[in-house]
Amino acid sequence: MRQNHLFAPTLREAPADSEAISHELLLRAGFIRQLASGIYTYLPLGWRVLRKLERIVREEMDAAGAQELLMPAMQPAELWQESGRYSVYGPELIRLNDRHDRAFALGPTHEEVITALVRDEIQSYRKLPITLYQIQTKFRDERRPRFGLLRGREFLMKDAYSFDSSWEGLDRIYWRMYEAYATIFARCGLNVRPVEADAGAIGGEGSTHEFMALADIGEDTIASCTHCDYASNLEKAIAGDRDASDDLSSDASTSQPPLPDDEPSNFAAPPSQPPQPEKLHTPDIRTIDQLTAALGIEASELIKTIVALVDGKPVAVLVRGDHEVNEIKVRNYLGGAESFEMADAETIATLTGAPVGFLGPTGLAIPVLVDAAVARMSSGIAGGNERDYHLRNVCPGRDFPLDNVSDFRNVIEHDPCPRCAEGTLDFHRGIEVGHVFKLGTKYSDKLGAKFLNAAGQPQAAIMGCYGIGVSRMMSAACEQHHDDNGLVWPLAIAPYHVHILPVSVKDEAQMQAAEQLYETLTRQGVEVLLDDRDERPGVKFKDADLYGIPMQVVVGKQAGEGIVEFKSREQAVKNTITIEEAIDRIMEKMNSIG
């Protein structure tokens, strides 16, 4: 490609609304342009990167035995009503009606459509297993689109779905996809960490992993062990307790029977109980910080009582003063509840009779969920359910019940690892670029996707779901690969492999050498951008660094002698070498592309 005709308008200053470095650089380098909030046009350079990401994804999906198809973006609302997700997705689901007033939705994902397709076409176990995938534009009406391509209302996604006749078969496909994802991200030059995660609105049973591209701008927090390979999304991460007799290293987010009919837990009141609760006069002291300062204690000595409405029903959750409630764990414990809403002051007063800031666990008439860290306390200080009073010596199991004890909190940094005896948890930020779910029969049951098994009996298909945010990968690569001067693309996904920069297009020797190099490399399958613009050298060099093409060849005053400058974009050093040596170096790097 000759740059004189390239449609890649660059910007010298960062746009005022750019919130992430990837957003800023993709705009400045002319890779994307915004049409509306969260909606972008991919200009030629951006489209080339996107197509290369797609190619790598396709190659690895095909190698894993998946078959590509293409499903409609516009989906009948009846399918979503059948699955029960029409209300779960809420306002993020973009809804519309056709001229006959039939309701549709623009697909944020395609579980319903693919399940209906397989339901109608596969009736025998002999046609299974099968894995189908597509790469398609998805739509979600984000409340606050931000960070450019990282959280948009329209984005490109690869979504794959597997159907099997057994859980063992699903397990094999799941881990095959897991390995394929690891290969995809490695080939794309991304530093990605697989972490255990919650299935969220997609739902499912068993293993769920997210693939997180490590980046400071990431909206997700990853808790990982300093010693072993344990890593989890904060929503699902659990902490070990090396002094506790019980074992919380299992999946503490597993759903339990709904309240209030649970069997008593294994936790009991401590054998040596403290004195009876004692009232503390704490006028206008409502917050944890105020209470610790006034009493000269640590937040870990406090029992915090949080009232929430879970699927509209009130529940009290007890956590230590230095911990925060994890709503996902609460919802999962309560049978996979769909909503979690913190109660306001008026609701708390109506339910408990206590003012905000002085609510405690004693004598509550609503179900009480107790975090395991609270259950292990010999005693603590809690709200007294009376304005301006707290209680000292509140004892778990004596002063409030321990019928529902589990892991209900977010982990904090330096918590013990739940998997090994040596490690502690560190926090990192990450961008979710992929996920794999074991859906089980969640959708096949609801949509009637059944087949006849070997015994001739109808059986629901056992499903898996596997997604990759293709356009999000583009931004994640920018977050991980840039410097002060612009983008630094990994070779496998760069818009071009080589950028040839003649210093002066008016110099015949320079242009002749540049053209010959361009033609030689192009014949050998190298993608080359030739800057044939009549611009100052400084402009050319700034644009070249901004574009981030991995290899640069500067053709200058020594062109007539067959000498050029060669530079890898990721390095500052320029090497003065012959044109033949430059070609050799370029081809050597090209042979390294996976």
UniProtKB/TrEMBL annotation:
Residues 241-282 are annotated as: Disordered. Signal peptide: none annotated. One of its GO terms (molecular function) is proline-tRNA ligase activity. Keywords: Aminoacyl-tRNA synthetase, ATP-binding, Cytoplasm, Ligase, Nucleotide-binding, Protein biosynthesis. It holds the Pfam family HGTP_anticodon. Its EC number is 6.1.1.15. It is found in: Cytoplasm. The keyword rRNA processing does not apply. Residues 33-490 form the Aminoacyl-transfer RNA synthetases class-II family profile domain. Consists of three domains: the N-terminal catalytic domain, the editing domain and the C-terminal anticodon-binding domain. Homodimer. PANTHER family: MITOCHONDRIAL RIBOSOME PROTEIN L39/PROLYL-TRNA LIGASE FAMILY MEMBER, PROLINE--TRNA LIGASE. Belongs to the class-II aminoacyl-tRNA synthetase family. ProS type 1 subfamily. Catalyzes the attachment of proline to tRNA(Pro) in a two-step reaction: proline is first activated by ATP to form Pro-AMP and then transferred to the acceptor end of tRNA(Pro). As ProRS can inadvertently accommodate and process non-cognate amino acids such as alanine and cysteine, to avoid such errors it has two additional distinct editing activities against alanine. One activity is designated as 'pretransfer' editing and involves the tRNA(Pro)-independent hydrolysis of activated Ala-AMP. NCBIfam families: PRK09194.1, proS_fam_II. This is Proline--tRNA ligase. It comes from Cohnella yongneupensis.
